[in-house]
Amino acid sequence: MSSSTSSSRSHQPAPLVAINSLIFDVSGSTHSMGDAPMEQIHELMTKLKEDAIANNTNIRLSLHTFNGSVRQVIPSDPSQLSVDLRTFTIPSLSDIRNILRPGGSTALYDAGIIGFDHLEKIYEEEWNKLPRDVRSLNPSITKCYVLSTDGMDNLSKHSMSDFKKRTLIAKENDVQPLFLFANIGSDMGEKMGFKKSNAAQFIPTYSGVTNMLRATTECLRQMSSGQTQTIDSQTLTQDMSPPTSPRSPPNLRTRPTSTPLNLRAQAHNKYGLSPPQLRRY
User: Considering 88, 222, 272, 277, which has the largest number of Cβ atoms within 10 A of its Cβ?
Assistant: First the structure.
């Protein structure tokens, strides 16, 4: 968003549409994370769904996984681009475990580019659904992109340069990117086009992934509520208690996330419109 927008975050309404595009590595090395990805992606969807229902907010979600190839797994129907979390039935933990089963190589750049392109398709679809008079008022539609990997690319058809160019275009189009990474060097995010504020390194263990994805969930909830207009990876490094065992569900008492956010959208009209200066992306 523009600097003028970010300077008035506390006065922003909830977005009319909140798009969340997730792209997760499921290559063979991710087995070191145990059940953490399964548990935390399930919790991410659960918390966003709670917020969407409680505040009747159109929170959209898509999930792609990648190893040597890239696959759209949510929505499972390839003819659909995203799901409306108000009505979406969240897969069971066992179903998500199967979705995230580790194996194969790492086509990171291909997956990242496909994720960016998919996000823009969701945006166009949601924009075109709006009545013309609503579109003329420049409603707020947030576009959040999360790419997570635990290793270097070793199979993509695209190069790092290709990916960086696509990242820079996405940021010009007001995509809020978040790159979660491990085992690839602290400067790799910048080489791929991410600012330091849009990249966060995690430890590829059950505890490390649990803490990182818990914080990511809170970041996406805040974006979807209008509490913040930009993603800042510094918010992901706050001290959070690790889970008590490598197989048990995470200790959720570290953050008061069991109750849906009390969004300011209720104080605005039914369309949740942003101030007129917000432009169409």
Answer: 272
